Amino acid sequence: MSNRSMQRLLIFLPPRLGAGGRGQFASGTVVPYVALSARESTRGEAPVALLPKAAAVDLVFDSSDVFITAIESPKLSEGRLRMALPNILEDRLLAEAKSFFQSGLF
To answer: Are residues 32 and 59 in the same domain?
Structure first.
């Protein structure tokens, strides 16, 4: 790859389980990427330390590492909702874990 900088670099991170559950990558870890400029796009794989330079970098997480849920929140002002959101989400996660253990699947 040439030394010129790309506009955007998409880095596709492997699943955490594939990294031994550590969630950290060494500079020699090879990751797939897509480098985008105004005129061209380049796909490839490279060690983290040798990825092309770019003005913007987007990390694309594996879907198994992403948690998405819908929660019902009380009617609060935006500031209060931001403060309450971590507790609301924690309550939701605890309720799901409790129902999982009560279901007898574990």
So the answer is: yes
Radius of gyration of the chain (CA): 20
User: CB-hemisphere CA count at 13 Å for 96?
Assistant: 10
- My answer on whether 34 and 47 are in the same domain is yes
The mean predicted confidence, pLDDT, of the chain is 82
What region, left, alpha or beta, does residue 89 occupy, with left being phi > 0 and alpha being psi -120 to 50 degrees?
alpha
On whether the pTM is more than 0.70, the answer is: no
| 41-55: pLDDT as tens digits | 999 999 999 999 999
Residue 71 falls inside a structural domain: yes
For residue 95, the enclosing domain spans 67-106
Quote helix, strand, coil % in the chain, to nearest 5. Answer: 35, 25, 40
User: 56, 17, 57, 50: which is closest to 31 by C-alpha?
Assistant: 50
Maximal C-alpha separation, the chain: 57
